[in-house]
Amino acid sequence: MVKDLPPPQNTQNGGEQPLSANDVLEVSVFQVDNLNRTVQVDAGGQISLPLIGTMTAAGRTLRQLEKEIETAYGEKYLQAPDVTIFVKESIGRRITVDGEVNKAGIYPVSSGAYLLDAIALAGGFNPVGDAGKVFVYRNIGQNKLVANYNVEEIRAGKNRNPRIYGGDVIVVFASKSKIAMNNLKDALGLASSAARIAVIP
C-alpha cells in the first residue's frame, strides 16, 4: 500500500489521458456543419474524417488531436478552422466503484475527475460504508498499487481530494462499528416485536 497514488504512466504529468482504440468522438468544425462527424477510433488507433482522410488518434490528447485536425484542414481547405472534439464514449475513461456504496457500478469519468466525484456518481456511502476506508486501486506499468483515503478528512479540507483516472477501481469497505450498531438495532427490534406478541391475549 502507498500513501498516495502516482498518475498513470500514459498521462502527461498527471494531466489528460490520451485517446485509445474504441473511443467514440464527436468532431465539430465551427460553422462548417457538413464536416461534423461522430467517429470511432479503430483497432489501429485511426479515425477517418471528410476531405483529410485517415488520422492517428490513439495516444493523442484531445487538444493535440484538435490541433492536428485544424492544421490538416487549414493547409488546403479552410481558413483558420476551429475544431472541437468531445469524447462521447470511452472504455479507457471508465472507473469501477464497488463495496459499501448505494449504486456500485462502472462509470465514465471526465479528464478532471476527483475521488469525491466518483463517490457521488455511486450515490454516496450506504448505511455501513466507512468514509475512512476508501481504497483506490490503480495499474502503474506492470504493478497494481493501492492507497487508502479518508473521505471525511477530504471533505473537511484536512487532506487533498485525489485525482481519479480511467481504469481506477474504488472500493469502500464496511465500518465494523456501523455493522455492530445495525445488528444491535435489528436485535432490539426483534426483541420488541417478540414482547408485543407475548402480551397479546
What's the gist of this structure?
The protein contains four helices and ten strands. The chain has 201 residues and is α+β, with helices and mostly antiparallel strands.
Note the main attributes of this structure:
2 domains; 25% helix; elongated; five-stranded mixed β-sheet; 201 residues; alpha+beta; Outer membrane lipoprotein wza fold like; wza like fold; three-stranded antiparallel β-sheet
Describe this structure as you would to a colleague.
The chain is elongated, with a radius of gyration of 24 Å. The protein has a 5-stranded mixed sheet with strand order 7-6-10-8-9. A 3-stranded antiparallel sheet has the order 2-1-5, covered by helices on one side. It has a two-stranded antiparallel ribbon with strand order 3-4. The model has no long low-confidence stretch (mean pLDDT about 85). It has 2 domains: about 25-90, wza like fold (2-Layer Sandwich); about 90-180, Outer membrane lipoprotein wza domain like (Outer membrane lipoprotein wza fold like, Roll). By secondary structure, the chain is an alpha+beta fold. The chain starts with about 25 loop residues before the first strand and ends with a helix. Strand 1 and strand 2 form a beta hairpin. It is about 25% helix and about 30% strand.
